[in-house]
Amino acid sequence: MTKRSPRAASAGAARTAPPSAARRRGAAVRPRALVLQATLTVLALTACTGGERTVPVRPVGRVEQPSATTVRALQRLVRDGAPGAASLITRGGRFHGSRFSTSGVADVRNGRPMARPDHFRAGSLTKTLVATVVLQLVAEGELSLTDAAAARLPKSVSATEKDHLGDLRNVTIRQLLDHTSGLFNYTEDARLARELYGKGFAAHRYDSHTPAELLRVALRHPPAAGAGSRSGQGASFTYSNTNYIVLGLVIEAVTGRSYAEEIRRRILTPVQLHDTSFPGTDPALPEPHGRAYSRIGTHRVDTTSLDPSRAGAAGEMVTTLDDLNRFFSALLGGKLLPPHQMAQLRSEAATDGTYGLGLYATQLPCGVQVWGHNGDINGSYAQTAGSVDGRHLVSYRVNTDALADPEHGTAVLTAEFCPPSAG
User: Fold this and answer.
1) Where in the sequence numbering do the catalytic residues fall?
2) CB 365 within 8 A of CB 26
């Protein structure tokens, strides 16, 4: 989640939004037309119809590890103030040959370096998995992108929040997915923000929050300008974690199961993401893990342990670099969605090239375009980006929640995807 403007719009829960359009384009001007690979092969999974099966994403044959092109960029992130930084490069869809690189430390107390199996909180990267499940439900005819959000909420929430649901009657599922709903970002609420990631963090780090409670906080605030048009006309991109809190509730209403359980059934089990979890209110990270650090005022605070219900479907996911690469390989490679929903996932038309439906494109300085998402939550920042077919991927992370210079994060991607002579 991120808390300020496009690059920051969530909170101690998952404070990251995609970088601004200008920043993502680098020096190049990005065409508004959607860039798709015409020959992309798409495999529809049993998962798309609610069943379970295994998605093969394993390499074939002997693979040499790629060169560690991201090392210098990781070192720059550490010089910027991150205790540690790590990346995982996968080329040609060959996971056994992935290259792990690291700089700095996972724990400032004992100097342990970051390790490839380490678990960490992934913040708004959660959104891409939530969006994938929603689009699977659309493909199955259980949902429509034009449905009014208020009509698709669980009855218990609708009854409890009926006095506050006016804004949601004019918001569609599509507008939730691409952040054009105009709904107030609950993590920007002044009181809640202090408790989530400000001076009140120490006293409130173990507070539990329900999705209905977080939605109620958001609906007490007026919507952003341009909201309230179900046609989408006049709406503009305004990153809000509230959108995905609502989508988590929609998944529950449609399937009868929590969004986390649906992700397990439809994504984690088929793609064999054994190290990804949705902890709910559990404050502990699975082993192994390093520490997480936030800057609160002038102090570096250990924020490893916290109640992640503050983030919910907007950013509670815990994962590893390997699992991020495997998920995005399956998604971008067309193994989780039919062709029509893949096109919808990538469509950034409604946001003027800023954000698709839980995914966004980044134009690197050399002109190469990659697809992925980023995310942050207290003490952790991560990003995954990949080629249009998902065969070439980079995931990186730092054990702090804010990049001192966001361009240095983009430099990690540039180091791998751009030839040395380019950009």
Assistant:
1) 124
2) yes
Q: What is the pLDDT of residue 163?
A: 63
d(CA 362, CA 354): 9
Other C-beta atoms lying within 10 Å of the C-beta of residue 299: 7
Q: What dihedral angle (degrees, nearest 10) is formed by the CA atoms of 99, 105, 111, 117?
A: -50
Instruction: Please give the pLDDT value at position 17.
Output: 52
Mean of pLDDT values over 52-75: 65
Using DSSP's 3-state secondary structure scheme, residue 331 falls into helix
User: Using CA atoms, how far apart are residues 65 and 67, in angstroms rounded to an integer?
Assistant: 7
User: Which of the pair, 122 or 34, is modelled with greater confidence?
Assistant: 122
pLDDT tens, residue by residue, 174-209: 999 999 999 999 999 999 999 999 999 999 999 999
CB atoms within 10 A of CB 221: 15
The answer on pLDDT for 263 being more than 50 is yes
Q: Which two tokens stand for residue 331?
A: 């998604």
Q: Which two tokens stand for residue 55?
A: 């998605």
Contacts 24+ apart (CB under 8 A), 380-385: 380/120, 380/121, 380/122, 380/123, 380/292, 381/16, 381/123, 381/409, 382/120, 382/122, 382/123, 382/125, 382/324, 383/125, 383/409, 383/412, 383/413, 384/125, 384/324, 384/325, 384/328, 385/413, 385/417
Please report, as a single letter, which amino acid is at residue 359: L
Structure token pair of residue 139: 């493909």
Torsion of CA 5, 9, 11, 16, to 10 degrees: -120
Q: At what angle do helices 321-332 and 126-139 cross, to 10 degrees?
A: 30
Show Cβ contacts of residue 351 under 8 Å, excluding neighbours closer than 6 positions.
178, 179, 180, 236, 237
Contact at 8 Å (CB) between 364 and 310?
A: no
Q: What is the DSSP string of 115-167?
A: -TT-BEE-GGGHHHHHHHHHHHHHHTTS--TTSBGGGGS-HHHHHHTTTT-TG
Residue 392 in contact with residue 92, Cβ under 8 Å?
yes
CB atoms near residue 361 (< 10 Å): 22
Spell out where 214-283 has E strands: none
What burial class does residue 287 get, using C-beta atoms within 10 Å of its C-beta: 0-12 exposed, 13-18 middle, 19+ buried?
Answer: exposed
